[in-house]
Structures are given as structure tokens and as C-alpha cells.
Amino acid sequence: MEGVVFKRLNAPYRPGARAWLKYKVRETAEAIVGGLTGHRSVPRTLLLGRYDEQERPQDIGRTTTLPRAAGALVGELLTTVRDGHPWTEWSFSAGWGRRETLVEPDLVVEVAVDVARDTSGRWHHPARWHRPRTDLRPADIPHSGTPRD
Questions:
Q1: What is the pLDDT of residue 98?
Q2: Residue 78 in contact with residue 107, Cβ under 8 Å?
Q3: Which of 19, 38, 57, 83 could form a disulfide with 44 if both were Cys (CB 3.0 to 4.6 A apart)?
Q4: Which domain holds residue 89?
């Protein structure tokens, strides 16, 4: 279930009107930062992934635009790409008209996500920034497609 819609009993559906309220089910989840949009020192959005059971990288989504303070915090924690970045062949969904920059996939972040997924397992909507998880390593993150991810 993605959420619940509330409306008054006597409120008919009106195309384009916003008279009904929707409450989306959200949970937090951890993901690995594999790339970003914006400048590395103050990212605009984070491109997120997880590894599958065969340790192959999987694109699971991106964040909404980060608050500037959060971007600055994350920028201090990101590592510039070294040779042999494991996600070089990965095609990100960075957002319309945005260029992505790969970073070393060694930072784990916690994000708030909708429970809705698309057919490939990606989060249906952009994730909302919650916090860095410097206490976790990428190997600690559940594989893509496992429960509670």
C-alpha cells in the first residue's frame, strides 16, 4: 500500500482540484552514495544504490534537492573517485537536465522513502535526506530487493 486518501463524505472528485488529502507511507532506509548532481563540495542531489546478491551495483533512486547545510555536510564526507570505480558503467537517473558526478561509493546515508517501487525495484519517488550513517559501511547495507530496504 502506498498511502491513504482522505476526503469529506460529500466531496465529489473534481479533476485538478486539491480537495482530497493523501497520506503516504514512508520509512527510512540506508543507501550507498555512488554519485551526485551539483558540485562535489555541496551536492544538489545524491544518486543512490545498493549491491545485489552477486555484489553488482543497483540504482535504487536519488534524493530530492538537499538543503544547503546537508549538502555541505555530505560534501565533507565524500571521496573523489579513484581508478576502477565499480559504478562507471551505471546509468543514473540524475534528473532532467542534470549532469552526474561519480564519487567513491564509500558513504552510507539514511533517507526517507515511499514504500512504492517501480518494476525494476527503484524507489518510485525521490528519497528525502535524513542523515549520514558514518557508523555503517557499504557492506553493512542490505542487498537490493531484501526486506526492509
A1: 62
A2: yes
A3: 38
A4: 26-140
Q: Which three cell numbers stand for residue 118?
A: 517501480
pLDDT at 41: 93
Question: Residue 73: inside a domain, yes or no?
Answer: yes
- Position 80 in a domain: yes
Among 28, 29, 65, 17, smallest CA distance to 140 is for: 29
CATH number (domain holding residue 127): 2.40.50.140
Per-residue pLDDT, 1: 60
What is the helix (H) or strand (E) element at residue 80, kind and residue range?
A: none
Instruction: Name residue 35's beta-bridge partners.
Output: 47, 102
Is residue 71 within 8 A of residue 42, CB to CB? The reply is yes
Q: Where are the alpha helices (DSSP H) in the chain?
A: 68-77
Cα(115)–Cα(68) distance, integer angstroms: 26
Domain membership of residue 9 (yes or no) is: no
pLDDT along the chain (149 residues), means of 10: 78 81 80 92 93 86 95 95 75 61 93 82 89 96 66
pLDDT of residue 147: 46
